[in-house]
Amino acid sequence: MSKRFPIISVTGSSGAGTSTVKHTFEQIFRREGIKAVSIEGDAFHKFNRADMKAELARRAAEGDQTFSHFSYEANELAELERVFREYGETGKGRSRTYVHDEAEAAKTGVAPGNFTEWAPFEEGSDLLFYEGLHGSVVNDTVDLARLADLKIGVVPVINLEWIQKIHRDRATRGYSTEAVTDTILRRMHAYVHCITPQFTRTDINFQRVPVVDTSNPFVARWIPTPDESLVVIRFRNPRGIDFPYLVSMIAGSWMTRANSIVIPGNKQDLAMQLILTPLIERLVRDAKRA
Ligand SMILES: Nc1ncnc2c1ncn2[C@@H]1O[C@H](COP(=O)(O)OP(=O)(O)OP(=O)(O)O)[C@@H](O)[C@H]1O
Ligand SMILES: O=C(CO)[C@H](O)[C@H](O)COP(=O)(O)O
Prior knowledge:
single chain; Rossmann fold; binds adenosine-5'-triphosphate
């Protein structure tokens, strides 16, 4: 656990909604006057798009059908661990951007499918904010969970996650439904082995559950709206969480287990503010004291 320079990690599969959740964090940071440096998990992919394609082909030729962006070996997790450790100890570190599309290319001057150069973090930040696929990984070589002080999981039930991914990748990344379906299938092995184990280590999980029929996610015409969903919020350690306060402040919420609360989908932003603001405040206060 870093104290002097705390780290928050938000972990979710591709399309889970981690970028959307990042906006809520940004609002909290702005309101509380907290200076955060942000890093994206995609910055720590091992390969650019062309090299990834070649690596996939090479491994497939050798009979490995399980390799994907979700795999540990497709990412520089040792470098991510080094950045977490360095930030926790010194408040310094470095990151880069993986450029997904033309809009990002126009901003960065780097062609889609490539990385920008590594750049040092701005000095004088209060905390490090990570958003990506691997923020709570523990495996034979790295322990990222140990280095992050507040770990959040963003995990819609899987049909909804697929719908969100298909719609986002079609709308903003130019992929067809068939191409996204192939990607989902190719990533399934690593999804089970590298992504899901993290959600037993995260401190709080936000799981969006649609209340409309999503039986065939591959033909869904739109993403179920917040009004068409509930969110299950689960605390790994419920001690110190004021559930009566949350239930009274969030209209339509109720508790389903001693560590779980269910809220209407359109209250996710409010719930995050109520739950996360005091936790973030405490992290920053303890850090200033340390
Ligand atoms: N709570 C929500 N309600 C409705 N739509 C949502 C919600 N969260 C995410 N979405 C939608 O799901 C899609 C994917 O979300 P987002 O881009 O945040 O995913 P992501 O986890 O950041 O994906 P990646 O890591 O691949 O970039 C977007 O179209 C987004 O608008
Ligand atoms: O969302 C992703 C991982 O979270 C992307 O799939 C990954 O960053 C690479 O994208 P692409 O294959 O389109 O270059």
